[in-house]
Structure formats: C-alpha cells, structure tokens
Amino acid sequence: MTTVTVSGRRGVTDPLKLSRPLGAALVFLGVERSLPLLHGAQGCAAFAKALLTKHFREPIPLQTTAVTELTAVLGAGDHLATALDTIRASSAPDVVGIVTTGVSEASGEDVEACVRAYLAARADDPDLPLVVLVHAPDFAGGMSDGWASALAALVAAGLALPPSAPSSPGDELTYPVLAGVSLTAADLDWIEETVAGFGLSPLLVPDLSRSLDGHLAAAWNPLTTGGVTRHALAALRAAPAAASVGTSAAAAAETLQRAGVPVSRFDHLAGLDGADAFVESLRTTTSAPVPERVRRDRARLADGLLDTHFTLGGVRVAVAAEPELLVAVTHLVNAAGGRIVTAVSPTDEPVLATAACSQVVVGDLADLRERAAEAGAQVVVASSHAAATAAAIGAAHVPVGLPVDHRFGAALGGVAGYRGGLRFLFDLANQVLAHPTPTRSHPC
Amino acid sequence: MRSTGVPGSVFTEPGCDHSRGKDATTAKAGCPAPTPGSAAGGCSFDGAMITLVPIADAAHVVHGPIGCLGNSWDARGSLSSGPHLGRRAFTSDLTEHDVIFGGEQKLYDTVLEVARDHGPAAVFVYSTCVSALVGDDLDAVCAAAATATGVPVVPVHAPGFAGSKNLGNRLAGNALLDHVIGTREPAVRADGTTSFDVNLVGEYNIAGELWNVTPLLARLGLRVLASISGDGRYGDIATAHRAHATMVVCSRALLPLARGLAERHGVPWFEGSFYGVRAMAAALRGFATTLADEPLARRVEELIAEQEALAATQLAPLRERLAGTRAVLYTGGVKSWSMISALQDVGVEVVASGATKSTPADVDRMVELLGPDALIVRDGKPAQLVRIARETGADLLIAGGRNQYTALKSRLPFLDVNQERHVPLAGYSGVVTLARELVRALDNPVWAQVRRPAPWEPVAS
Fold first, then answer.
1. What range does the domain containing A389 cover?
2. Residue A288: inside a domain
3. Is the entire prediction scored with pTM above 0.90?
C-alpha cells in the first residue's frame, strides 16, 4: 500500500498542477467541429491556448467570454450570450463546451440559468450547437478533475441527444471507450485498433487521435479538425457495452453505466498486466479470438522487457505527473526492475494508493527537486517544466504528460498498452544509456 | 468587494493615444475592451508578469488560483546574465477554503517561505481576478511581509479582468514608480560622473537580444543604470531616478513610466526601437540628443558609420536573396511599425500589417513607412491573416507564436518575432540575424513537398 503525503510548504513553487479549466477544455478538443469557450477573463483562455499550442504544435481552437472587472461583479451573462453569438456567426461549431473558471465561479453567478435562457430563446433554431456546460473553478482540483467533469458532462449531453438511427443487423456493434486525460493520440490509436480487432466498432470519447495527433489537413480550420462527432455521441446509449481507461474517465463511466450501458473500467493500461486485462475484457465481451496483431504487440513488449531489464534493473526513477499517469509510470518502471524513489502528484486522488512505490507526495516541482536529489534519482519522468529540475540534480529526463514542448512528438508518445509500454521502456533505457550515472554515493 | 486597486487614472493617461483620442468619444473609451467570443491575447495579469518577471534577482509570487501561474510559467524567452530566481514560479495556489475565508494569511506565509528559501533581492506580489474579487488586502500583506523579512515586498495590482495585456504592462510600470524607483542610490562610477547614465524601458532581452546593444552603448560611454526590465536587477531599477535619459523601447504601454520618471525625477526620455539599421541609428542619436552632449554625438556618428558599413557587408548577399520577398506582418502595438522598418532594411516588402493592438499614432507611423496604399489589418483573426496572405501573394507570415500554426497549416512560411522566439533580433547583428532567419524560413525544401498533393489526389484547381 502506498502512503500519500502532502508537501510541507504553504505556497507552491514551480507548479506541477495545471488548471481545471485547461483539462476541461482539452476534452472538447477531442470532439469534431467543436470549440471550448472559457468563461473567464481573457487571460484564462490565452494561457491555456498558449500552453496547448506549444505542447501539440497545433493551432488550438479556444475562445473566451472575456469577463471584465465590472461584469465579474454585475454578472457576465451578457458576455456569455455575446460570445456564443459571435462564435456561432464566425465558425458555426457543432459543439460548444462552456467551461467556467475561477473568476466566474468566485463571482457566484448562475451560469446554468444564463445558458438555459440562451438556449430556450433559440429552441427553434435548427443550427443550434450542442452546448455542454462544465463547472471548472481553478481553485478546486487540477487538470485531471477538469477533464473528469467535462467528460462526464459530454457523455451526459450525448445520452440526452435523440438516438441516432439504430444499427442494422450485420453492422459492427459500437463499443465506446471513455478515454482518460493521460492517453495520447498514439495510445488511442492502439486502443482503437485493438477494439476493432475484436470485431467491434470503437467509439473513442473524446478522441484526440483525430484532432491533435499532428496531421496536415487540407486547410487551416478555426474549429477542431477531427474527433468524436456530435452524431456519434448520440449512439452512446445504444451501445451494448463500453470501457473506460483512466480514473479521469471514471465519472463519465458512472454516467454511462447509469444509462444502462455496462462499463469495464481500467485505471491504466500499463505493462503486460495492464494491457492484458484490457484485452482479456474484450475477449470475454466478444468471445472472439485475440487478433494476431494484438498477440504480436504483446510478444514485442515481452521481448522489450527482456532487452531493457539489464539497463533498467535497479535504476532510480523520480516521477511527477497527473495521478493516473503517475500510477501507470510507476507500474511500468517496476515491471522492468526499476525503482521509483520519488513520486509527486499535483493533486490527491484515491488511485494514488495503487501506485507501485512506497510513497506519493502531493506537491510541486520543488518537492520533486528536493526529494529526487535526496534519493539520488537517475532519471526524472515528468513534463517539460521539470527539464530544469532534472538538469539541476544531474538526472536524465524522459518527458511525459503536459506540457512537453522541448521535444517533438508528444502526441505520438504515451505509455498505454503493449505499444505504449514498449515505447516508454525504450525511451527510459535509452536515456539511462545516454546519461551516465553521476559519480556520487547513494543510499541503496 | 473592495477596490481591486487599479487606479482610475490609468484610463486617463495623457501619454496614451487611446486617451488622447481624436474625438471625445475615443478619448473616453480608454483602452479597447476585449470582445467576448473573438478575443485574442493575454490579460492584464499576463502583461504585468511580462514587464516584471525579467527582474531576475526578485521572486515573483502570484496570489491566485493555479490557472494564473500553473498554465503560464516557464514560457518566455527573456534571458538573464546572472541570477535565475525570476524564472522560478511561486504562487499562493488559492483553494476553495481561501476563496471563502480569504487568502491573506496564506499569501503572507508564502512570501515568508519564499524569502527564507530563496533570498530574493525583492518580492513582487501579483493580484489576480480571484484574489481581487475575494477582497484580499494585498497592500497590507505586502507591508507586513516586508517588515517581517526585511526584503522589499511590492504589490502589483493588475488582475486579469482589469483589461488587456497592454494595461497590465502599464500597471506594472506604476508599481515600479510607486514602490521601487527612487528607493536606492547608484554606485558612483570610477570616473565619478553620472551624466552618461541611462535607462532602458520596455526592452525584455528576448533571446538575449539586449546583449546585441549593450556593448555598443558601453563603447559610447553610456552606462545602463536601469533596464526595465530585460536582464534587470531590483537594486538597479531602484536607482532609475538618477539616470539622465530614458529610452522607451517599442512600448507604448510603458510611456507612463517614462513620463513618471520625467515628472517626478526630471529624467528626460525619448522613444525608439532597436530593430533594424535605421532604427538603431535613430536610437543612438536619441541618446546623444537627449543627453545634449556634443562629443557623445560625434562618437555616435562614428559608431553608426562603422556599424552600418559592417552590417551592409553582411546584409548584401542576404538582401539579394530577399529582394522581391513579400510579407504579411502581424504583431502587437509599437512592434508593428518598428518591425516594418527592420524588414524594409533587409529588403522585404511588407504588403500588410496588423494593427489590432496599435494606437492611432502607431498606425500613422505604419502608413508613413508603408505608403498610403498599405493594407492595415484591424481584424487579426487567423482566418483573416491567411486570406490576406493569399490575396496579397505574400511569401510568408511574420507574427507571434500564437499564429505560427495558422501559417504552417496553410503551408505558408513563418517567422516568430514575438516574445517566445529563440533568436535575438535587436541591434546591428540582430538585423543580420533577422535576414538569415527569413532566408532560412523561405528556402527550406519542406514547402514544395507539403504543397504537392499525394499522387492519388486530384490536383487542386
């Protein structure tokens, strides 16, 4: 059992935590022809947009209601309505995700009523987008919480849509996979191919593998250029079964389950164990044989574990990441014989108790720096924000999470499934090889 | 709710064109308000951080929830030649509890922790929308923390919802005027004189570009007393009142700071830019004129002649390659005209220039440089930029990082000239770098490849 402790400082130094609105907005970036709208001061959207742009190296559709000092106090409902009118006129999105922020939550405004009134006044408009409201106060929780709330709200909105045409006999059965915040485009590709390999029709919600995977479309577009469609969301409630991957998809899984769709839940898909559990579940659900492609992926990971274990056995690793990613990384490192000497999570979550290490600290990158130095960590596994930390303690750096803006290919990295696990172990082992252990003594 | 501490006077700033509008309505409107649903760019808090975070030996503490700092830190290209404390990120990380019961104690504790653990020359404390709404008394906490630590603790009242990034720059300038400048005396120079001490205001040392200029100033015998705030030090900025000239570098928003230095401390100022050959000459002459020193003026002319000859030699082959190149420029405020001048110096024709954040005076200067037929783009939405680039047959887009992927997705070469770039563009060597970067962007073989459709796709009409 892992103990979870809290940083000893009052303030935060070099934050690991990202904001809740950022996580919520990211969900809508995995919906086709969609636009997240941050209900806050314009900086809330500008900062989130800049960070996501640098991470994905993609244009990020994200708008703001531009709340001002005056409207924060007197009510910013008009700003919300104006913003909706403006974005509908300029880009006609299929889906708009309204995400509140610290300022709109602290002002105590009834945003629900504003949205209801806006929609009611236009009930006859056939071009009305699907509007999904998410509460995301910056001052409660972080990115994973924002993702969790937004995904649950998106699923609820999908369930409320009029059902799409029933599938005809012979059609493949829709199998929704509710995706957590830690899954990259490459992770989602693996999940999709694996599900399809069992004769199911995968429906990823949300689907960043079609929007922010880094692809050159025919032309620039003001909205998301791919992702789960509004039409496909309407098929959610007819699905005979579904899965969720990541604890940030758990709330959405509950929503779907309550609508009568049984959901198999996975905290992560790390290593042979994590990926096997997912594949076994698909095999049981479909009674189909495990496809050759999946067997091959598994055999490659098993071989990679053998190849890297000489290098990774006993390696001291420090990790700082969102809860579900942190847990996945600890299991992968452990699986190859490495040792997690420091683990830091930006927020507390029950899943941290399942991490493959003795202790997780809820804290910041100053906690990571102090503890990783103390423990003689050889590798730091964390976002680009930890590059300076790794350099300061003389450790190698394997970038994971968000933002990863000092390396290319973040969207095609990831740690999930047989393929993600193999990619990660190779990255980790290559970094250890490229970065000789500092000549200082460590307690073992 | 208490006052957020943004003084009403910033909206009637006489040095600002928006206040000094051509008619009464424009004048009253003050800074342009952001439009819900089509706003781009940062908030006042962002602007305040941009202006002050380059003060490298100070700690910068953000009193707000995580979004304000957690999403924004570690993103700017302002470099320091010494301490790096300014790049570290500190926040009180307001939680629900703090929003309900107030966050003053937590802020106080945070400032004391930071002072204890990092030994800063000073601590700047930034209010945010949430802390302003909650009504935390930033001034009182800062005063108490300063007493407890013995370190200057400076309140910066620029919550995001106050307005635009430009307003935040200005509010940060006010904080320096009110709390920092005039609190220390400069070290006496070896020769005992101070008459060649100068200030730079609005130069942020992006990618170290200030260091393309400071050696030239040193050769002229000028000492940069306070750099506000590229590669800045708290103690130096505190002595800015003893300078004999201030150059405002490409920053309309920090004009009030220069005016304040003039009115309160009698330091004369002039405006200029370090981008481009012509601008450099004007800037160096500006120092000579403002300091009214004849020998200095002669040294300036010698230096200009020498540097222009050097730059001309280096630029010749690059100008040859760039001849006939057409660019759409989209960058903020003052930088729009200063960058036009630099681009013209390297032989690039600017066919359109953005003016979203520019004042009427900025636009006048743009038109002066570009000629009356110039296309001035008021609506800087990405779609608009792409369309204009198409229509004008532009070879590339020159803008800030935010528009980089707009250009790339449209298969249009791009050059980043804003604060996140990694190449120094100021000074005579900077203009050569600018030309090299332009050639590098235009001549890359990727453009031909990505514009070619896949063999199985119909050729676009």
1. 3-11+313-434
2. yes
3. yes
